[in-house]
Amino acid sequence: MADLRIVGRAFVDGRILDEITVEIDGEFISSVSVGESGSGPRLLLNKGQLLLPSATDLHVHLRDWKQAYKEDVFTGTSAAAAGGVTTVVEMPNTLPPIRSSGALKERLELLATRAVVDYSIHIGALESVKDAVEALELGACSMKLYPTDLERLESHLRVSRMSGMRLVVHAELKGGDEPETVKMLLSRMKVGDDIRFAHISRAESLRMIELAKMGLGARITVEAAPHHLFLSSEELDENVRKISAVRPPLASRADRHYVFSGLGACSVDFIASDHAPHALEEKMSEPSAPGFPGLEITYPLMLTEWLEGRLEISVLVKKLCKAPAEYLGIPKGEIREGFYADLVVFDTRARWNVSAKDFLSKAKYTPFEGRPLLAKVVSVFRRGELVYDGGLMVKGGGMHVHELKQRYG
Ligand SMILES: [Zn+2]
Hints:
Elements: E1 4-12, E2 15-25, E3 28-34, E4 42-44, E5 49-53, E6 55-60, H1 73-82, E7 85-90, H2 101-114, E8 118-124, H3 129-137, E9 142-145, H4 153-163, E10 167-169, H5 178-188, E11 194-197, H6 203-215, E12 219-224, H7 226-230, H8 253-264, E13 270-271, H9 280-284, H10 298-307, H11 313-328, E14 343-347, E15 352-353, E16 372-373, E17 376-382, E18 385-389, H12 401-408
Helix pairs in contact: 3-4, 5-6
């Protein structure tokens, strides 16, 4: 007898099937079958509901420590759960930053006690191979290079090549030209390098990356953020100008259309929120602090594109769930026997408008305020446990991806 059977419409093997039974045993999916089968407690979905794998977000800022007034691990990961995201990867530009094994250990201890969803960490730029190897042993996901780190790019590339540590790059040198920075980075890449471009926003950047992906022999991947897919500087409402301040800045309509087309064309590998909360006063000051929360609406925004006929569901599930889980090397992101039961029930007949005052994030504003959406999160399971059901159901329980990998292996 299964611990739980979820019966109804589900996304399985790349398509939506009407009557599926997903059986959950402990933390795992124990079977997926057509029709209703098995015995044990049952969650029967209604006609408007759809069972999907929950998402893995490779780019979030949970703040905490000295910036706990902006967000903390608990509120940030609660926002993740509310958005159908059950694994997050944190960026290292915390205060103090995560740029040593000591800081990494300290951060992992905090996450272990406070995170509601599973987690991993991108460590900041390291100067020595020994440090990188140590960080990898502790489970660091990859090494994040910020614009200021690019001055020492050769040294970081050497550390990456000698330790096997993957790179994630914010490609925007001082002055803010993303295409120029992408061009410079691509010119330094060698066969065997593994580099992920965070939040690509310009058509020109993506075109260069597309060519490099085909010919360079390096593993090059690309992340796109919802604000670069759906918002442009030309279409921006004047009263959200400060709220929408972000790095890289919002681009033109043509740019955002090109980046969007990269989802179907497979030049964009991942959708990541770049959840980056600040205090409202920091957003309203001059200059405005770059970034805003995004974890709670990324999945619903993408599903709305599908429901309105602009994107295939298989594409969005791949970029939100499957590909990022594969990047981390964990069996998540698909509704499949033997995989972790990381699942989300969506109401696909919902009609609602984004309202930041309802966010579980401490940052209660968004450039998407008032935007009509057609899909709403109903319930979320993290490794078989109901973590969100119209409200948060747990106080913690998130685990380090590194540990999940060892347990699964
Ligand atoms: Zn970021």
